[in-house]
Write a structure and sequence with these properties.
Length: about 160
């Protein structure tokens, strides 16, 4: 069967379970499906928040994410990938994004999902503004996220699933 790949940016909520099911429906070659869904927390830096607002460059963001999906497909034997990322105002408890990877074996599915998450956190052109009681603040990049993505830098490097 063919490899399916979906990259979608949208304002509206999505159904993570339904999106994941699309990767396996009618397929007998998939032996592993790994999904990650990022959810808006009710606090940032130990302070309560009312919402976060995500902004992006339309067209550019999709192209950049698709480039990293292609890289994952070249590194691991994937049978399907879905990346959905919301933008706009998101309140605590709502889903922000999801990554789903399908493969014949779990190691490839886990590693590819982790790889894509690290790149989405650091390289995808999104900007996050947090709405607090005393105003709004833009969220800076974190050194820990940059360090996480650095482990994938070696060309052609395949990494085992997280330990």
């Amino acid at each position: 069967m063919t490899m399916t790949s979906i990259v979608r940016l949208q304002r509206e909520p999505f159904d993570a379970a339904a999106e994941a099911k699309k990767l396996t429906c009618g397929r007998t070659d998939v032996g592993a499906l790994v999904t990650f869904t990022g959810v808006c927390r009710g606090s940032e830096a130990s302070e309560p928040i009312a919402a976060l607002t995500l902004e992006h460059y339309p067209g550019m963001a999709e192209t950049e994410i698709e480039r990293h999906v292609q890289d994952a497909k070249e590194r691991w034997p994937l049978l399907g990938v879905t990346v959905i990322h919301r933008y706009g105002r998101i309140v605590p408890g709502e889903d922000i994004m999801m990554v789903a990877t399908a493969s014949s074996h779990r190691h490839a599915a886990f590693a590819a999902a982790e790889f894509l998450m690290d790149y989405l956190k650091t390289r995808a052109p999104f900007w996050k503004q947090v709405e607090k009681v005393d105003g709004t603040v833009w969220v800076d990049a974190k050194a820990t996220d940059d360090a996480a993505v650095g482990r994938w830098a070696a060309p052609g490097r395949k990494r085992e699933a997280a330990k």
